[in-house]
Amino acid sequence: MRILIVEDEMVSRTKLELIMEYFGDCKTQEHGDDALAAFHEAHRDDDPFNLIMLDINLPGMDGIQLLSAIRNAEKELNLEKSCKAKILMTTSYRDKDRVVASIQSGCDDYIGKPFDLNLIRNRLSKLGIKERTLSTGANETSTPAPTTTDQIYGEIVTLINTGQTNLPSLPKLYLRFRELIARKASFNEIVGLIRKDIAISTSNSAYYKGFVTNKSLEQAVTRMGYNAIVQMVTELSIRKFFTMKTEKYRSLIENLWKHSISSAYAAEFMSKLLKLDLKGDPFLMGLLHDIGKLALLQIIADMERKGRFNDGIHPIMLVNILGDYHCQLGAKLLEKWRFAECYIDTALHHNHPDPIPAAGAQAEKEAAYCKELMIVQFASQIVNLMGYNILASDPAAIDLNDVVPVQQLNLKPERIAETKEQVTERMKEVQDLF
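Now predict its structure.
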């Protein structure tokens, strides 16, 4: 199957291409004129596109105009209905009024952003389009290697449930520190705990706004204050968790750490700016919201070392499984670590396009943590916009008007700009943690 993807936003285009490669061979275009030219060229070469994924909002010729041009061209070519391309429009939540126009112009269906493999799989299934089987290499194993994301995740769950692999454990330093905080430990106990683990130089950085060089850990703790110490220990102990023996995945782990720590700063700053009374620490919720991706990477790397994927897991599979299943595994991991329900719920639902589903018992549960979900969603999206993204180092072309929390929290442009400045400053100050 040949697939044409027409999307001007780099991150959406990259993500969509990675997903759609799971169904066929993809060609991408950023502009409507170029896409129409590619459509005509494919027919001249007698190798037409079977499926076209088309963004409604395009610069120049927009998606609806391109859709009409393609359908008119098909009429001129006297194509049978079975030979015409299936066309799915990709839309944001703001495009609801334009979906009707798209249907009237001849699209087969539409998909709302943000999209993932499951959503696209369900939509394409209605059109009779199934996933293709990806080659796993010439070598065979006694047990067939998993060939879909569902099979991979199913095998991961089986390995966990049968004790053949374990969910990661929190760093001992953080566990001990959390115990001290819970029982309101004394100054001397805190100093004793971190004496061997935290460098005194940390408190001399611009990040902690000091004026006199610390010469002892006691002096450092006194100067930084209780809240800063809590955050510092959290950063440094969790940072040790973001490591990977398998060189293949180290860059992904580093990008994931940068996304997580920048999300923590954005969530913390915005919650203070909006004076929100949250049920948990926004910094920690931002830091741990994508922890399921880390667990998946660690488990998958271990499966690869044991030869479970023959020549290695396919990159498309890897990206898709991280997107599809990190929320479930992240929530399971935080539950194992005995975090409060607000952290678990945020990890489980932060990838939902709308913080509160329309109705039902689940909606009532999620509504209890609506502010927490919105803050984490906003933090995650704004740092993606700044380039702290697991898939790309360049800033993402995200329209913040498409981010639901921006509307529901009534975030003004100046507050968003201030948040970005604060995150940029913090990220510069903690470069040594990378």
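The CA atoms of residues 136 and 314 lie 8 Å apart.
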